[in-house]
Amino acid sequence: MKIPQADPGAGYLRHRAAIDEAIRRVLESGWYILGPEVDAFEREFADYLGVEAAVGVANGTDAIELALRATGVGSGHAVFTVSNTAVATVAAIESAGAVPILVDIDPRTYTIDPDRLEDAIRRCAAAPSELGRPRAIVAVHLFGHPADLERIVEISRRHDLLLVEDCAQAHGARFDGKRVGGFGNASSFSFYPTKNLGALGDGGAIATGDETIASRARSLRQYGWVDRYVSGVPGTNSRLDELQAALLRVKLRHLDEANDARRSIAATYAAGIRHEGVRLPTEARGSHHVYHQFVVRATARDALQAHLADAGVGTAVHYPVPIHLQPAYRGRLPLVAPLTETESAASEILSLPIFPELPSESVQRVVAQVNGWTRGGHA
Ligand SMILES: *Cc1c(COP(=O)(O)O)cnc(C)c1O
Predict the structure, then answer these.
(1) Which of 85, 267, 275, 374 lies at a C-alpha separation of 20 to 30 Å from 220?
(2) pLDDT digits (tens, 9 = 90+) for 5-17
């Protein structure tokens, strides 16, 4: 039996009756886009996060772009983020009209390194005509682990920068006891099916503690309308539909339980995997990791991945090519400093199977296969 790396279908089957009932309710209502289910989901999700408002949009990429535009980021602005993230993060910054400035990571958490962030801000501030005026930070809580929000919030205030959190992989993660998504001026979420809170199609949301930002985002997601058929600003179409909102409401009720299941799998991996060629992920003090991915590190990563594939264990690399080295971006994005840790991580990281419904026998089998890996004959 093959063990998949992720299995969004299992999340549907687990809550099948409630999801089927929610879908039937929407189908019979005759109202399919931006209606009572979206309103209710936005309220419930905002309450869950402990923020003022949530605004449903079409996907996580739009959520970043519209969060940036709603907070006032646009052309001529430099926006600081990382190169080891979903391409969406950087694509959204460019869609908002700004210039992404990529900063190296802390290799322990794979999130933006605060010292290097400050260094990049200073370099940009010294050459604003070339790089854009420093305006915002997009902090990505990669793999379910919060970025160092204590330092990042402090840096954003001291340099008068906006802070947007990319929470696409971190629904329910906490920093100092508080859920991520409530630290920045705005934050973005994706409900892509494999995410910790996943729809059965595309979906996303912006969360914010600022009513003005929320109302701008609501306008931007629907043609910039201030009134029906009257656009006050140039907007777009990025709406969440009622079907996705209705089933997200079901899944939101089980999000903490699903994250606990991920944490328990991670704990089993951490306790069971013992191999000198394999390094385990860490959880920084004060951080509550929700293990969107369980990412190990091996210098002989490709050999480990091949060994696991032979044993029927599905794995993935998130992400094999840092954004600044991809054809669409290479040589085009300004680099203010080398991205050494980012590049070194990309060649060594491997995401093991993890999803809430992964059976414990499968978890044990993965542990045994990793521990039994002999690199070309010598362990
Ligand atoms: C998934 C993801 C996105 C993009 O979300 P989509 O819904 O696929 O547009 C953005 N940032 C990160 C970190 C992601 O993992």
Answers:
(1) 85
(2) 999 999 999 999 9
Residues with CB under 6 A from ligand 1: 59-61, 85-86, 88-89, 140, 166, 168-169, 190, 192, 202, 204
**Ligand 1, atom nearest to 142 Cα:** 13
Inter-residue contact 88 to 94 (CB < 8 Å): no
Strands 111-112 and 105-106 come out as antiparallel
- Which atom of ligand 1 has the smallest separation from the CA of 85? 13
Amino acid identity at 58: A
Distance from C-alpha of 170 to C-alpha of 245, rounded to nearest angstrom: 19
Distance CA 76, CA 361 (A): 53
Length of the chain: 379
- The 10 Å Cβ neighbour count of residue 374 is 11
Cα separation, 308 vs 289, whole angstroms: 25
Per-residue pLDDT band at 379 (split at 50, 70, 90): very low
Q: Tell me which residue of 156, 356, 158 sits closest to 265, measured CA to CA.
A: 356
How many angstroms is it from 293 CA to the middle of ligand 1?
14
Q: Which is the closest atom of ligand 1 to the Cα of 191?
A: 7
CA of 204 from ligand 1 middle (Å) equals 9
Residue whose C-alpha is closest to residue 277's, from 307, 299, 310: 299
Q: Please give the distance, rounded to the nearest whole angstrom, from the Cα atom of residue 30 to the centre of ligand 1.
A: 30
Task: Provide the 8-state DSSP code for 323.
Answer: G
pTM to 2 decimals? 0.97
**Pocket probe mutation, ligand 1, options 62, 105, 141, 190, max atoms within 8 Å of Cβ:** 190
